[in-house]
Amino acid sequence: MENILIAGAHGTTGKKIVNLLNQSSQYNPIAMVRKEEQVDYFKSQGIDTVLADLEKDVSPAFDNSIDKVLFAAGSGGKKVVEVDQEGAKKLVDAAKNNGIKKFVMLSSLGAENPEEATELKEYLQAKHNADEYLKSSGLNYTIVRPGSLTNDSLTNHITLEKSLGKQGEISRNDVAMTLTTCLTDNLASNQTFEIINGDTLINEALDNLSVTHA
Q1: N or C end of the chain: which has fewer CB within 10 A?
Q2: Domain 2-212's class?
């Protein structure tokens, strides 16, 4: 069983990711949280936790034997450089130092060309910079860029393209399912793609991506 470190575990999408991994026979989630009071939420469910702050030293997050990292943290627009950009870069560095097998990054639609954005430009620039840093790290990575997040139910279906060329919505449940599926070793390796609501099964969409860009 592989240990998966989830940054941003206490967030809305992060909790869904942790729950999915906790139901898996393949993965053991380790929830990375920055506040002591957030630990109890996961411990009460028997989920391993680690205290680490993306604005400080993240190396304690790797005191357990971590196999893979899933970055789902976000500052909510308040500290985009400190958390979304520099925090992500710190975690990439720590992952590299600890020889992790894969790094899955939750990014955002629009992060490819942040200069074209009419709103959230600073956020998208921070995500872009973090994505580029991960790409150049030498780590095995997958970068997932979803459209606007909703709280709709899981459909297990998406539209996936390297570049969609349009905006759209997608449920946090489908994003969480996509991210956790990308933890598979050779699935969507060293790929960046965009997703919104769609009609293709998540597994099928990711398989097609891996085959097309092998």
Answers
A1: C
A2: alpha beta
For the question of residue 123 being annotated catalytic, the response is: yes
Of 20, 104, 103, 30, nearest in space to 65 by CA: 30
Top mean-pLDDT range of 8-12, 67-71, 83-87 = 67-71
Which pLDDT belongs to residue 17?
Answer: 97
Domain ranges in the chain are 2-212
pLDDT at 180 over 90: yes
Residue 190 CB-half CA count within 13 A: 8
Partners of 6 in beta bridges: 31, 70
- The pTM score is 0.94
**Crossing angle, helix 88-97 and helix 121-135, to 10 degrees?**
10
Residue 103 identity (one-letter amino acid):
F
